[in-house]
Amino acid sequence: MRVVAVVQARVGSSRFPGKVLKPLMGAPLLARMLERVRAATTLQQVVVATTFEAKDEPIRELARVLGVPCISGHPTDLLDRHVQAGRVHEAEVVVKIPSDCPLIDPRIIDRVVSHFLSNHDRFDFVSNLHPATYPDGNDVEVLPMAVLEEAHAEAKRPHEREHTTPFVWDQPERYRVGNVAWETGLDYSMTHRFTIDYPEDYDFIRAIYEALYKPDATPFSLASILRHVAHNPEVFRINAHLAGVNWYRNHLTDLRTVSRRQTVLFEDD
Fold it and tell me: Is 72 helix (H, G, I), strand (E, B) or coil?
C-alpha cells in the first residue's frame, strides 16, 4: 500500500506566528522536523501541505530546497489540504503529522503505521491519540484514502474541516477506530509537553536539540529526551505549566468522545 505522510504547516499561527521557521541548530524548525519524519521507514512519500497565502511562500521555498513535495491549499480547511495532497501523490493510505511536533520520534511513526498496515482489514483509522498516552507532540494518525475522501465529502462543521480527522474518530459507531498505546504502559500525555504552540515550547525544544542533536546521526529518540529531562529538571520546567493544553479545550461541546480530563483550559482562550 502506498503510504503518504502529510505535514501541515503555515506561518500564520495565531498564538506563535512563524514558529515553523524559527531557527533550530542552524536550520528552520520545520526542516529539523522533516529530518525526523523522513527517517521513518514505513512512509513512501512525505508531503508538506501549506496554504496558498503569500506569507507562506517561505515554506514553499524551504520545501523546494529540501526536495520535499509541497501543495498549497485553504488556510483553515485542513481536511481539504490533506485530501489534495493524497490525490496528487496517489496515496492509498494517508498519515497525518502536524508540524507542531518537531520532536516526534520516527520510531513511533513506524509503530503506528505498521499497526495500521498489519490490521488494515480491521480498522478505518489508527492513531496514538484515542486515548493518548505518549508525551504530547508525538501525534500520528493513519487512515485509508477512501475514508479521508468520505470525510471530505460529508464533514460540514468547522472543527471537522480545520482538524482533518474528528469526523472519523468522533464517530466510533460508524468507523472502526484503533489505537496504539505507549509500550511502556505509562501515560505522559497530560504531563510532558513536546509540542510547540508558545514561545516557552520553543525554548524547551531548542534546549533539547542543543543537548541531543548530532548532524548525520540517527534522530535522537523519545527515550533520550526523557532521560535528558529527568537529569535536567530545569529543562523540563521550561514549558511544564503548559502541559495538557491542546485544541480540544475549544471544542468540548462539539466533540462526543473527548472529555474535559483530556485537555486543560488556558488563560489565552
Answer: strand
Under 8 Å between Cβ of 75 and 122? no
Quick: pLDDT tens for 4-53. 999 999 998 777 889 999 999 999 999 999 999 999 999 999 999 999 99
State how far the Cα of 243 lies from the Cα of 205, in Å rounded to an integer: 14
- One-letter identity of residue 221: S
Nine-digit cell string for 248: 480540544
CB 58, CB 11: distance < 8 Å: yes
CA-based R_g, the chain, Å: 17
The separation between CA 58 and the C-alpha centre of its own chain, rounded to angstroms, equals 20
Q: Could you tell me the CA-to-CA distances from 12 to 49, 97, 109, 121 in Å, in that order?
A: 14, 18, 26, 39
Name the band, by pLDDT with cuts 50, 70 and 90, for residue 261.
confident
Nine-digit cell at 85?
Answer: 495532497
With residues binned 3-state (H G I as helix, E B as strand, rest as coil), the percentages for the chain, rounded to 5, are 40, 15, 45
Contact at 8 Å (CB) between 165 and 125? yes
Q: How confident is the model at residue 71 (pLDDT cuts 50, 70, 90)?
A: very high
Length of the chain: 269
* Residue 167: all three cell numbers together: 469526523
Read off the pTM. 0.95
The amino acid occupying position 225 is I
- Percent of the chain residues topping a pLDDT of 70: 98
Instruction: Report the alpha-carbon distance of residue 226 to residue 137 in Å, rounded.
Output: 13
